[in-house]
Design brief:
Layout: E1 16-20, E2 23-26, E3 31-34, H1 37-40, H2 49-59, H3 73-85, E4 92-96, H4 99-114, E5 118-122, H5 131-135, E6 154-157, H6 162-165, H7 169-186, E7 193-198, E8 201-202, E9 208-209, H8 212-225, E10 228-232, E11 256-259, E12 270-274, H9 276-279, H10 295-310, H11 313-334, E13 338-344, E14 347-352, H12 361-373, E15 376-377, E16 379-381, E17 386-389, H13 397-415
Parallel strand pairs: 3-15, 5-6, 5-7, 7-10, 10-11
Antiparallel strand pairs: 1-2, 2-3, 4-12, 8-9, 11-12, 13-14, 14-17, 16-17
Helix pairs in contact: 2-10, 3-10, 7-8, 11-13, 12-13
The chain binds 4'-deoxy-4'-aminopyridoxal-5'-phosphate.
The site of 4'-deoxy-4'-aminopyridoxal-5'-phosphate (PMP) has 15 residues, from α4.
């Protein structure tokens, strides 16, 4: 008898039978409000009819044409569509399949373009699980421990996690920028540094919006030292935060962006975006792979971007996100264990803190499990003490209220008798 690898250990016992919109229907006959969106992927909801139709039509036309040999129409169309929403100056796109591949491509491009070896990443950042991307990841030791030696040339700088430091945001930003300058003087000189990579909202590391002033400080140093700034928009992009891109909560324009997850509603496709001049420093054929920019995934991405525009999903993320944030604040005022509520748009989280001020990992996990009993699917992040709430961008206010009620019941079930 074969079995699924223990590497596939699941956080919930749910097996999906079918799914639509914000709902997952389990093989157990129950339906679950899906506030995980496949880790921020099913942006237009499960099986949006326009995405399904686009993919179906493409399957009957061309499934695969390898882009270094024969180009296909969906990728040209997707390039036009993404071009409409990319920041000024970022006018070139290159495609892969997964987030990690995009991050790796961005890192390789930065090294090639600058001729410098080092990458600076930030504490708590998550950029993937391949050897190179795990090397830039510091959101948990499990992504690194036992897999050494990882890629050389990555150095970590502190990230302004004001809540953990117990500081106000400005103090945290000032401290982190000073430490970054110190890193340039002591560990990785600007002449050796190709790029800094940052998530506009720290995702797996705990759902912490990067303070705009920090991003602006990075931009200023990047310009001064001719270092490239990579915005990893894999989780924060395509409307998730209530703006099309997470970095647009600041005035900063990055040099390279990574894009994946929500861009194709569940089909595997990713991209890096950068100015043509920068992109043209890498050898054609030196990046990407056999399945990069698959035709069916690209067609689904085109339909996804159309739905995001036609159904005003960026505004919906902003407005439903505000309702969700208010509901979470209400829960926090009733439960002292919720130490912090934070997020942008539909990228929201609550952090559980034990009475002694340490991260309450046990409660984070227990709430996730109790939520399943309430018919609500949630994910943890941070050390497990942070429960993140990421509904599909099509979520309604009614579903937000429903989800908040289920979450409240789950927290009650866990904390009953403890407080
Ligand atoms: N970067 C960020 C910001 C992510 O959130 C993720 C996935 N959680 C990745 C990179 C890696 O993407 P993938 O799992 O598709 O390789």
């Amino acid at each position: 008898m074969t079995a699924l690898s223990p590497l596939l250990k699941q956080a919930t016992p749910v097996v999906v039978d079918h799914a639509e919109g914000c709902w997952i229907h389990g093989t157990d006959g129950r339906r679950y409000l899906d506030f995980t969106a496949g880790i921020g992927v099913t942006s237009t909801g499960h099986c949006h009819p326009r995405v399904v139709e686009a993919a179906r039509a493409q399957v009957g036309t061309v499934i695969h044409a390898q882009y270094t040999t024969v180009m296909h129409k969906p990728l040209l169309e997707l390039t036009d569509k993404l071009g409409e929403v990319l920041p000024p100056g970022i006018d070139s796109l290159f495609y892969a399949n997964s987030g990690s591949e995009a991050v790796e491509a961005a890192m390789r491009l930065a090294r090639m373009a600058t001729g410098r070896p080092n990458i600076i990443a930030f504490h708590g950042g998550f950029h993937g699980r391949t050897v190179a991307t795990a090397s830039m990841t510091s959101s948990g030791t499990k992504f690194r421990s036992g897999y050494a030696p990882l890629m050389a040339g990555v150095h970590f700088a502190p990230y302004p996690t004001a809540y953990r430091y117990g500081w106000d945001v400005d103090t945290a930003v000032d401290f982190c920028l000073r430490e970054l300058d110190f890193l340039f003087q002591t560990v990785s000189s600007p002449q050796d540094t190709a790029a800094m990579i940052i998530e506009p909202v720290l995702g797996e590391g705990g759902y912490i919006p990067t303070p705009p002033r920090f991003l602006e400080g990075l931009r200023e140093r990047a310009d001064r030292h001719e270092i490239l700034l990579i915005a990893d928009e894999i989780q924060s992009g395509v409307g998730r935060t209530g703006k099309f891109w997470g970095h647009q909560h600041s005035t900063v324009v990055p040099d390279i962006m990574t894009i994946a997850k929500g861009v194709a509603s569940g089909f595997p496709i990713s991209a890096i975006a950068a100015p043509t001049e920068l992109m043209s420093t890498a050898w054609p054929g030196s990046q990407g792979g056999t399945y990069g920019g698959n035709a069916v995934a690209a067609a689904a991405a085109v339909a996804t971007l159309d739905v995001v525009r036609d159904e005003a999903l960026v505004d919906n993320a902003r407005d439903r996100g505000a309702s969700l944030h208010a509901a979470l604040r209400g829960l926090a005022s009733a439960h002292p264990r919720i130490g912090d509520v934070r997020g942008l748009g539909l990228m929201q989280a609550i952090e559980f803190t034990a009475p002694d001020g340490t991260p309450d990992v046990a409660t984070g996990h227990a709430v996730q499990h109790a939520a399943v009993d309430q018919g609500l699917l949630l994910l943890n992040c941070g050390l497990g003490n942070v429960v993140r709430i990421i509904p599909p961008l099509v979520v309604t206010d009614e579903q937000i209220a429903d989800g908040a009620a289920r979450l409240s019941a789950a927290i009650e079930a866990v904390l009953q008798g403890e407080e």
